[in-house]
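Reopening this one. Same input as before:
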Amino acid sequence: MKAEINGITVGYDDEGAGDHVLVLVHGHPFDRTMWRPQVEHFSTEGWRVVAADLRGYGESTVVPGVTPLSAFAQDVVGLLDHLGVERFVLGGLSMGGQIVLECQRLFGDRIRGLLLADTFAQGETPEGKAARNAMADRLLSEGMAGYADEVLTKMVAPHNVEALPEVADHVARMMRDAPPEGAAAALRGRAERPDYTDLLGTIAVPTLVVVGSDDEFTPVADAEYMHQRIPGSALVVVHGAAHMPNLERPEAFNKALDALLTEA
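Same output, byte for byte:
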């Protein structure tokens, strides 16, 4: 499905029915298909599940330049307004988790529960800012294929690349198919992101922090950092997974998310 939101076209899935709504935000450089195991499972378990392509990715409009997290957050809420959804559980992975935190900052009164998967709350360092902008330059000049090949075994644990070839192929395909202009704009926006550490202590809804045990991009320590600062939050480490536990270990990931949804 597609909708016109904030002057762009947004591609999205909206499956299941009812008043209990789960919204899932994908990471970089992926698209909404990364959430298929969760959309398919929870839409048959009494939840209406919404997963959209962020601007610059998938079927959504590519907007070159710089895309701050606030723009992504406005698109998320704009789509939910379009769909008539007022209250929802919101989850995101990696960059998607940072967009979730930005939504909590801007629209926290509409959120019933939070899923923060393989993400981190701290602001960017000067070195990180330079690295993100350099990578943005590289993606614009070279395209996505070389980057996708380099990071595949960090996104998906090496043993899972061997044991779960369909998952590895899916992750590689999403990365290769991502529009370089959209991916670069997101990287430049993340380079300027705020530090959400102070926000963590104000979160008052059920919150689940999930991380793959083998995640190199956002190690377990980053998940512990958020868990220790979000009152009453739950922390689940998905063993045998790297940066994509929802795809590498969907049963374990869904079990943890189901516990959050029961509480929210």
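So the earlier flakiness isn't reproducible anymore. For the record, Residues 2-263 form a domain with the Rossmann fold fold (CATH 3.40.50.1820).
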